[in-house]
TrEMBL record:
Belongs to the LysR transcriptional regulatory family. This is HTH-type transcriptional regulator YwbI. Keywords: DNA-binding, Transcription, Transcription regulation. The keyword Oxidoreductase does not apply. Residues 1-58 form the HTH lysR-type domain. It comes from Paenibacillus cineris. Pfam families: HTH_1, LysR_substrate. The gene is ywbI. The lineage of its organism: Bacteria, Bacillati, Bacillota, Bacilli, Bacillales. InterPro entries: HTH-type_LysR_regulators (IPR050950), LysR_HTH_N (IPR000847), LysR_subst-bd (IPR005119), WH-like_DNA-bd_sf (IPR036388), WH_DNA-bd_sf (IPR036390). NCBIfam families: trans_act_CidR (NF047520). It comes from the Bacteria. PANTHER family: HTH-TYPE TRANSCRIPTIONAL REGULATOR YBHD (PTHR30419), NITROGEN ASSIMILATION TRANSCRIPTIONAL ACTIVATOR-RELATED (PTHR30419:SF8). The keyword Ubl conjugation does not apply.
């Protein structure tokens, strides 16, 4: 006996008629009669007294009816819940965002997504891109924003920002009058960097070593505004993406392009290739990709 047979049985019992039940279920009367006979044969009992104008439950039929009610109700509830998920009336997304990325790119997108899907909840975890990548890989996060490239064998991804790092110095700094600066010019400088769990931390150190020096790091932070504030206080120099630099007050800081080499900063959204994604998470990916590409275009 399956859930479809139980539903047929419940409808006959409710309407006390095979004909009316068949009409209600949009099937033929022979089909519903055959289904009820199959149940009776399987259980070895008679479910309905068919002697009168109306079919009436037997003692055995009443027992099955009472037991079947919560089963059918639970199935209908399950179907409704799944329907809500498919139609994105509800759902939950665990999203990882590096702090400097979240405030620059996502408040408006998150607001628009919530307006379209008000019953979908979102839990945002703010961590450096390196930790976000680890947490997406482990399954603690559904989706994350990281600095590309990543391991293409593990993650699906799309890129939405590609720009370069800029040099931030105090207005009194020896390089402040320059139009641009070479990375090698910074060999003797004090660096203010993001913490080790930020991808830019390793990226900057690697590029410095490539041109012949190990950077002298005096401060590390997770907040770009604190890093720029330290530069404004003449405590060191910093390298930050162009997007962040556009939000910095330039009265107290001199900002210029970094050349020889240019250090690229490419942001992307990632999710595991081999892990199931909820309907809500899939819609978030499609929605943000469309919005972020639209903004970039």
């Amino acid at each position: 006996m399956d859930i479809r047979q139980l539903q047929y049985f419940m409808e006959v019992a409710r309407l006390q008629s095979f004909t009316k039940a068949a009409e209600s279920l949009y099937i033929t009367q022979p089909s519903i009669s055959k289904t009820i006979r199959n149940i009776e044969e399987e259980l070895g009992v008679t479910l309905f007294d068919r002697s009168g104008k109306k079919v009436v439950l037997t003692d055995a039929g009443r027992i099955i009816y009472e037991q079947a009610q919560p089963i059918v109700k639970s199935f209908q509830s399950l179907s409704s819940e799944l329907g809500d998920l498919k139609n994105l009336k509800k759902g939950h997304i665990r999203l990882g965002l590096p702090p400097m990325v979240g405030s620059s790119f996502f408040p408006e997108v998150i607001g628009q997504f919530h307006q379209k899907y008000p019953q979908v909840t979102m839990q945002i975890f703010e961590d450096g891109a390196k930790k976000v990548e680890v947490d997406v890989e482990s399954g603690l996060l559904d989706i994350g924003v990281v600095v590309l490239p990543t391991d293409d064998s593990l993650f699906h991804s799309f890129s939405f920002v590609r720009e370069n790092l800029m040099l931030l110095v105090h207005p009194s700094h020896r390089l402040a009058h320059r139009e641009c600066a070479r990375l090698a010019d910074l060999a003797e400088e004090n660096f203010v960097l993001f913490r080790e769990d930020f991808a830019l931390h390793d990226r900057i150190i690697t590029e410095c070593v490539k041109v012949g020096f190990q950077p002298h790091i005096v401060y590390e932070s997770s907040q770009w505004d604190l890093i720029s504030g330290m530069v404004a206080a003449n405590l060191g120099i910093a390298l930050l993406p162009e997007t962040i630099c556009r939000e910095i007050n330039r009265e107290r800081i001199r900002i210029m392009p970094l050349v020889e080499p240019v250090i690229p900063w490419q942001l992307g959204m990632i999710w595991r290739r081999d892990r199931y994604l909820s309907y809500a998470a899939r819609e978030w990916i499609a929605f943000t990709q469309g919005k972020l590409m639209e903004d970039r275009g």
